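thought: fold this chain, then report.
action: predict
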Amino acid sequence: MTTQALLDRLEAVRSRGPGKWSARCPAHIDKNPSLSVRDGERGVLVKCWSGCDLREIMAALGLRIADLFYDPQARPGHRLIPKPLKLDRVALAFRLELAALDRRLRAERVLTAARNFNGATLTDEMRERLMVAVAYIYQDLERAGVFEHVADTLRARAFHERTRVHAA
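observation:
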């Protein structure tokens, strides 16, 4: 696989100098690009500075670790692009449900704390900041619902694929 072929699969790619790039890590929710990509001597070098395992990163891209190595039989400058791996819908659904659970638990803690505040002791600025925080929490609860819906859809598709394969 070429470095460019890998970069084409990533989001928020930025050049960091000759043969160096940063991008959002596909293995976790990455607001600030933490994935480092470099040209190596025998392949593409990939590292997540947030601590994601290389297997997790490659699975999220639908690739294998072996795909990072340049094809020794290809002519220089003409490396083969591998076929993407089949998406593991059940594993992805599980990750989405974990993300939804995390959001719901955090939201519950913040909303409980917000309910216990005495509004009379807060300044107008503090009260406004609290309201903004609560608004973000409600957005997180909506996201959790979306994650759960997508996870349910992925599980249903995986189930239908298995039953279709077994029925044939």
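thought: worth noting. The first strand starts at residue 11 and ends at 15.
final: tokens above.
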